[in-house]
Amino acid sequence: MRLFTHLLPRHDGRPAARAGGWPSQCLVCHAWPAERLCRACVARFMPAVARCRTCALPVAHGVAVCGACLRKPPPMALCLAALDYAGPWSMCIGRWKFDGDVGLTRPLAALLWAAPGVPAALDAVDLVLPMPLSPQRLAERGHNPALLLARRLAPGRVQAGLLLRTRHTPPQRSLPRAERLKNVRGAFQVDPLRVAELAGRRVALVDDVMTTGASVREAASALQSAGAADVTVLVLARTDEARHGAT
Fold first, then answer.
1. Which of 29, 37, 188, 230 has the fewest CB neighbours in a 10 Å radius?
2. Cα torsion angle, 161, 164, 167, 168, sign
3. What element of type H or E holds 84?
4. How far apart are CA 208 and CA 112, in angstroms?
5. 207 and 76 in contact (C-beta within 8 Å)?
6. In three state form, how does the secondary structure of 202-218 look?
């Protein structure tokens, strides 16, 4: 699979060392020695899924844009996701995000890189921005997962301080859909001293998990209002609201 034969670049542009240079155990099936996420588990749990091109929710094959996005187009021009936020990936992502297992950054970034359309989308943009965290959330976690992903995907083009989170908000996963929309309204802003950097630029916005999409929509709107030509959203995992009962 291309996932394990085309590895992400280093910051100096040279190919990264091959995954599995040191023996390890697969986090999913516990095979030993193996990658942190072995080839067999990736093949088994990462099937091809048709997704809406502007919100990344699963759709029927042959459908480009879901009904909700046709009725109310989101501010992003393109939205790509690698995984459904379901087992075993939800376990892996939870360990990476909340338990400090930052060693999972490389294999998880490789999953996103391998998603259809992602390399081409990255080639087409000028700037790569991570979804920002509030200082309080950053202190809780000790790292910003979106920033770790962005730096693996596009070293040299990441501008971490361009998009700011203006206020601390409760975690989105704890709120019903209507409250999520209110929770993040006005929560993102482009650094006023750097607005000129966005004028006419094509931007990729990177995030770890997308649920209702309220946060990325609000962030994409802030980028467009500040002058970005268009915004592409790249997310590692997408919650299927129908499957998981989100409201």
1. 29
2. negative
3. strand 78-84
4. 10
5. no
6. EEEEEEEEECCCHHHHH
- Kindly state the DSSP code that residue 80 receives in the 8-state scheme: E
Contact indicator for 8, 109 with CB cutoff of 8 Å: yes
Residue 61: what residue type?
H
| Token pair recorded at residue 223 | 């980028």
pLDDT tens-digit readout, 124-172: 999 999 999 988 888 888 899 999 999 999 998 999 999 999 876 665 5
Extract the tokens encoding 160: 């971490």
55-64, 108-117, 172-181, 188-197: least confidently modelled range:
172-181
**Predicted confidence (pLDDT) per residue in 202-222, tens digit:** 999 999 999 889 899 999 999
Angle 32-36-40 from CA coordinates, rounded to 5°: 70
Q: Collapse the DSSP code of 83 into the 3-class scheme (helix H, G, I; strand E, B; otherwise coil) and give the result.
A: strand
- Tokens 């699979």 map to which residue? 1
CA distances from 116 to 31, 51, 160 (A): 27, 10, 25
- CA–CA distance, 111 with 104 (Å, rounded to integer): 11
Q: How far is residue 120's CA from residue 76's CA, in Å, rounded to a whole number?
A: 16
* Cα–Cα distance measured from residue 105 to residue 144, given in angstroms and rounded to the nearest whole number: 11
pLDDT tens figures, 180-200? 666 667 789 999 999 999 999
Q: State whether the Cα torsion 171-87-77-203 is positive or negative.
A: positive
